[in-house]
Amino acid sequence: MGRKWNNIKDKKASKDANTSRxxxxxxxxxxxxxxxxxxxxxSNQALKFVLERAxxxxxxxxxxxxxxxxxxxxxxxxxSELRYEGFGPSGxxxxxxxxxxxxxxxxxxxxxxxxxxxxxxxVSGSVAYMFDQTAVIGVExxxxxxxxxxxxxxxxxVRDIMEEDDSVIVYALPDQFHAVQEAFRxxxxxxxxxxxxxxLAHNEVTLDADAQAQFEKxxxxxxxxxxxxQVYHNVDLGE
Length: 239
Prior knowledge:
single chain, alpha+beta, Alpha-Beta Plaits, 3 domains, four-stranded antiparallel beta sheet, 41% helix
């Protein structure tokens, strides 16, 4: 494991000067989560999770409020959750999650992003079996030993704990996401540097310089698709 989660987040956040693209994507995700259940995070776990992620990206309150109010207002705008799987240069593997109100448009854009950059779309299941869904929670101000003690006291047996720069990163089962956060909150933690449920590759691959440059260009093109929410891959980019 041990990918540089804070660096990955910072790279995504700095891609657009004013992060408007990231905020727009969160707006859609919050709206969909609020519309699918109660527009209250205390009774809607999906919404609670999205809001916790949004907090780590410093999404402004007015964007969050606007998305929730839109859901409360009974908007008839509907989104489909889609997952695409594909291959990049040198056999690299990619998973793409999207929310869209136009399936044909999104499929076309994602396929083009793969195809124009040395990759190709695969069929459902062609890549996902090489990844595990994993909760990733990052905290500051605690050592690895202190984090382990906090989790043991909460009777939580997680997958892994690693120190990264000034943070401790906890890898856990997806259904442990809220329990891990609650354990740290009970220990005085109020902020999380990372709060994600992601797809972790079983094994990472390293590409040569040319293949990596092409791969990064392909990932940028995929992430530039307005409907794409998350991109996961098995390449060690050396962050």
